[in-house]
Amino acid sequence: MQEINIEEFNYELPDHRIAKYPVEQRDHSKLLIRDAEGNISHTVFCRMAEVLPKESLLVFNNTRVVRARVIMHKPTGARVEVLCLEPCEPADYERAFTAVGECKWHCIVGGLKKWKEGPVQIPFDYEGEHYTLQAWRDEQTDGSEQIVRFAWDAPMTFGQLLELLGRMPIPPYLNRDTQEVDYTRYQTVYSKFEGSVAAPTAGLHFTDELIGKLRSEGVETEEVTLHVGAGTFLPVKEKDATRHPMHTEHFEIRLDTVRKLIRKHGDVTAVGTTSVRTLESLSALGWRIISQGEPGVERVIGQWELYDIPEERSGVELLQALADYMTTHGTDRLKAATQIMIVPGFKFRVVSRIITNFHQPKSTLLLLISAFIGDEWHKVYRYAMDNEFRFLSYGDSSLLFPAKK
Asked: Residue 398's pLDDT band (boundaries 50, 70, 90)?
């Protein structure tokens, strides 16, 4: 992989341009349009039906943000904040959220120096009775993560516990505590499956009414599930961006979705970078089937794995291999995990257009946008700055058509 100087993906982002709160109405944010000819204009997001191609396919990420921040205390009163990232035992999200009595999670711990040993806890009331949630540090994994064992005496699942005791993990760059508005607005209207510690923010602009209008105009919709990890906020600290270790994120895809992606190939709009990562990761599964006979879903899709797919292999061919495999094996859905890093030089085989917010300087998300529209990202971001767009998670949006070859 050729060296990528991360300084080339830097820009000045004043703090006052970062949206600290959402606009009053979801679909009244600004929408920048970078069309197929490279022209840039803007409108209001609620007019998306006027700019999105008719009969196209719109793909949402239906993950649901978990109230994953839990404030606990030592018996001495010392405050410890535990952010649940990914289940450990049980390792599957569904089983982890339905666990009763005990479970283990990969966590980031705030106030770790105060928690040398012993439990931290939080007392609570449930259905008129007094209970306690306790947690112990089991071990430290690579980096800053801890494996934390939770135990509780209440007749409820871990998912119910987080809903009762947890707080919404809003982005750290908002520099404020979670507020009541975040519990509804830092969640898409179509969210279904719990597992994310960050919202797929491109979808925050959609309302049920807007989705209904798009469908009435002939736009078809599909959903994928990718659980967004805290690594999405990590800046690229390496001078050479290719040395940045990408985080792992888990996703699920349905056979019906793969078939529709084949039918609508060349006319697929991904809502957000998480949908992009999921859809493009399917090419790796297809290539594994073609070259090895099976998708190997137990193996994480590697950071640079998609760059090894032969240039002549088309998205349709790779998706068809995946659809055929799932059909032959009677599988209506597959779960896998991905670490792909999309940088300039990447060949997009599935995604035709991207709806996305405006991202942090020197981030992997900005690298992805550059891979899609080339150096035009400078022009797009300059336009957004000049026209008072709001940036990052609660900010405004864009509809990007790809750079012409």
From this structure: very high
| Predicted pLDDT of residue 403 | 75
387: Cβ–Cβ under 8 A, 6 or more apart, which residues? Answer: 30, 32, 42
In DSSP notation, 329-359 reads TT-SEEEEEE-----TT---SS-SEEEEEPP
Same fold, 6-65+184-400 and 69-166: no
Tell which CATH architecture fits domain 69-166.
Beta Barrel (2.40)
Q: Are 67 and 58 in contact (CB under 8 A)?
A: no
Single pTM value for the model: 0.93
Sign of the Cα pseudo-torsion (100, 105, 110, 111, in order): positive
- Among residues 89, 226, 111, 108, which one has the least CA distance to residue 158? 89
Domain boundaries along the sequence of the chain: 6-65+184-400, 69-166
Query: What's the pLDDT band for 319 if we cut at 50, 70, 90?
Result: very high
CA distance 92 to 32: 38
Tokens of 70: 């839990």
Q: Look over the chain and give the mean of its residue pLDDT values, rounded to a whole number.
A: 94
207 has a pLDDT exceeding 70: yes
Among the four given CATH numbers 3.40.50.300, 3.40.50.1100, 3.40.1780.10, 1.10.1780.10, the one describing domain 6-65+184-400:
3.40.1780.10
Specify the 3-state DSSP secondary structure of 167.
strand
User: What band does 112 get if pLDDT is binned at 50, 70 and 90?
Assistant: confident
